[in-house]
């Protein structure tokens, strides 16, 4: 079809309108673009091979939708785009139907990121990014991104990353990020989700499961604008699962800063358990971090470590952590937390964590579980 239209155009025997009519009659291919073309605004491209995925990604422009058929794709270079969508003509990368799509970095050169966008108004949904030699998925200085129902697993550095100044108004919803490990640095960098080295308001993380990563579940190191985290779980981070004799993973569930930034992040209705360091920590961020109705259980160090800053903690629950419920400094404000006098600790309905990393519910919701629930409407995470 592309050839025949080109021939007609060169000889001038077919008007554009006629060409469109001919093209449309041949399965809806627009203006002679192949299925991998993706040049026209509003174009939908369906890909089923690694080469066509690479091509579609590189050519995406405002209004492009790339649908990826079920299967495993092994790009040989970073899937990279600097294209911007707009609020009304987003760039969308998504699974075709309910297909299971794995974008696998095992064929990339050492040190390569697997997917990297440097643009605004992208929607990326329903995909797994795995086995990268370095970062799994990275959005740099992106505005208005929607990152929905993604899995970032077993990558050679952090699974999912937002970074750079001008990182504004992004939503990360229902991310599963696990098993990420940077062997070259003995696990000291690979977090489940990293929002690091940048700034920009309105970024929100909700419904995440961040587990079994070498370093931290979530890390907000040197991000100098407030980030909102809610309905998210971080567990099993920091354990040496790779037989690394020089292992250096930190193992915080939620690491809420560090590197000099003083910023009032917010964490609500989230839970951290079985991490090798703290459940929730300011990590030297002196800002007025807000923590409300979170649960820390069986972390190896403190449930809540906020010793130097101005954090404000309310209605949080800490149980069974290795070195204590909470370590708070003189400028920290704490009210109605279960370490305050006169505040009761409601018993957990279950401490059986077996189902928590199982299949998600409809629309990607966290699985329904009794784990760490108490039924209290006053204190601790609802685990939903
Ligand atoms: Ca670290
Ligand atoms: Ca980290």
From TrEMBL:
Superkingdom of origin organism: Bacteria
Pfam family, one: Pel9A-like_beta_helix
Compositional bias of kind Basic and acidic residues: 351-360
Keywords on record: Calcium, Lyase, Metal-binding, Secreted, Signal
Domain Pel9A-like right handed beta-helix region residue range list: 145-298
Region (Disordered): 332-361
SMART domains for this protein: PbH1 (SM00710)
Cofactor list: Ca(2+)
Cellular compartment(s): Secreted
Family listed: Belongs to the polysaccharide lyase 9 family.
Protein's recorded name: Right-handed parallel beta-helix repeat-containing protein
């Amino acid at each position: 079809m592309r050839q025949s239209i080109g021939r007609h155009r060169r000889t001038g025997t077919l008007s554009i309108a006629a060409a469109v009519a001919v093209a449309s009659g041949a399965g809806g291919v627009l203006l002679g673009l192949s299925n991998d073309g993706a040049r026209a605004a509003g174009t939908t491209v369906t890909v089923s091979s690694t080469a066509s995925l690479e091509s579609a990604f590189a050519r995406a422009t405002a209004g492009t939708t790339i649908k990826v058929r079920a299967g495993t794709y092994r790009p040989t270079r970073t899937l990279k785009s600097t294209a911007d969508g707009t609020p009304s003509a987003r760039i969308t990368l998504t699974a075709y139907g309910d297909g299971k799509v794995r974008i696998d970095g095992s064929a990339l050169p050492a040190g390569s990121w697997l997917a990297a966008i440097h643009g605004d108004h992208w929607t990326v949904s329903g995909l797994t990014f795995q086995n990268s030699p370095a970062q799994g998925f990275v959005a740099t200085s992106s505005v208005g991104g929607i990152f929905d129902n993604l899995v970032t697993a077993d990558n050679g550095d952090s699974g999912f990353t937002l970074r750079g100044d001008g990182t504004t108004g992004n939503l990360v919803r229902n991310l599963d990020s696990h098993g990420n490990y940077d062997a070259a640095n003995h696990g000291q960098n690979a977090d489940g989700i990293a929002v690091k080295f940048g700034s920009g308001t309105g970024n929100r993380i909700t419904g995440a499961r961040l587990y079994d990563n070498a370093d931290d579940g979530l890390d907000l190191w040197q991000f100098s604008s407030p980030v909102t985290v809610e309905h998210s779980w971080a567990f099993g981070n920091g354990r040496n699962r790779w037989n690394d004799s020089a292992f250096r993973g930190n193992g915080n569930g939620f690491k809420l800063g560090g590197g000099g930034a003083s910023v009032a992040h917010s964490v609500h209705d989230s839970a951290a358990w079985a991490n090798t360091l703290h459940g929730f920590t300011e990590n030297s961020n002196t800002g007025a971090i807000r923590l409300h109705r979170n649960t820390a259980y069986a972390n190896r160090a403190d449930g809540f470590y906020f010793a130097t800053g101005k954090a404000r903690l309310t209605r949080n629950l800490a149980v069974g952590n290795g070195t204590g419920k909470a370590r708070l400094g003189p400028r920290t404000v704490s009210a109605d937390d279960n370490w305050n006098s006169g505040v009761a600790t409601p018993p957990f309905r279950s401490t059986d964590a077996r189902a928590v990393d199982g299949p998600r519910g409809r629309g990607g919701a966290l699985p329904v579980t009794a784990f760490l629930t108490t039924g209290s409407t006053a204190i601790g995470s609802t685990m939903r």
